[in-house]
Design a protein that fits this description.
This protein is mainly α. It contains twelve helices and two strands; from the N terminus they run αααββααααααααα. The chain is about 70% helix and about 0% strand. α2 crosses α8 and α8 runs parallel beside α11. The longest helix has about 45 residues. The N and C termini lie far apart (about 60 Å).
Amino acid sequence: MNAVDFILAGMLAAATPFLLAALGELVVERAGVLNLGVEGLMALGAAIAFIVTYHGGGHFLGFVAAGVAGALLSLLFAFIVLGFRANQVAAGLAIGILGQGLSALVGKTYESLTVKGLPKLAIPGLSEIPVVGGLFAQDIIVWLSLATTLGVWFLLSRTRTGLTIRAVGENPKAAHAIGYSVIGVRLAAIAFGGTMAGFAGAYAAIVYTPLWADGMIAGRGWIAIALVVFGTWLTGRVFLGACLFGAVSLMGLAAQATGIDLPSQILSSLPYLVTIIVLGIISADKRLLKLNGVASLGEPFER
């Protein structure tokens, strides 16, 4: 397998933690809330999923437990920012730190232990195509994440519920005036975002690299938040961005396999360098940000 085959075969799996967390954050931000605690939510979800799976609960229960843990911690964030109208940036950072601390605490005795991953489900015929065939041989969570991407796109752009979420994010006072529960919509969006972040952490810990190590999320939550801006709050662009970052995260391994003599620190920093460059390019286009941005993002709602 050459470098191109390797990157294409692993791109979707590498992109899945980014994609799941970013889809959740997309819905949260569309509702007008900025949650910077995604990294901590993913870390807690990863730890809980690994513990449940390691003790025989299976991958399904591992994902369920991770989703519940992410949702509960995100509801604490919701209580702070919706109930007390606290600064969303500060509250999100605090929740992120809490999540990482809890993950280190509960996962301490499981350091370097492993669990069994999930088998790949190949599409007959398509998976045998030269070069791109690896794209069609993925585990079931990857296929479900693709379906979730379509579901989030349909929800936000083709349903009354999606219109309500976007209305709450754009002008919460107007939405409240016509009878929508701004607090209720934002609460549901935050819980959904926390659940998706928990799922993303679970995938990283029990499927993608089925082992537990403190700090294994390694900034994926921050990249997921950046992906929402990268995708200018559009589902399709968020998906493409996740695929890009998934491919970039594999380039370091591909470069080492081909004999390129570069320090491992440089290769492992590639996704973060790309994040900075892409955000700089996107931020320079004020028209694009204004066209697709969320008008009330980060602003507390007062009746």
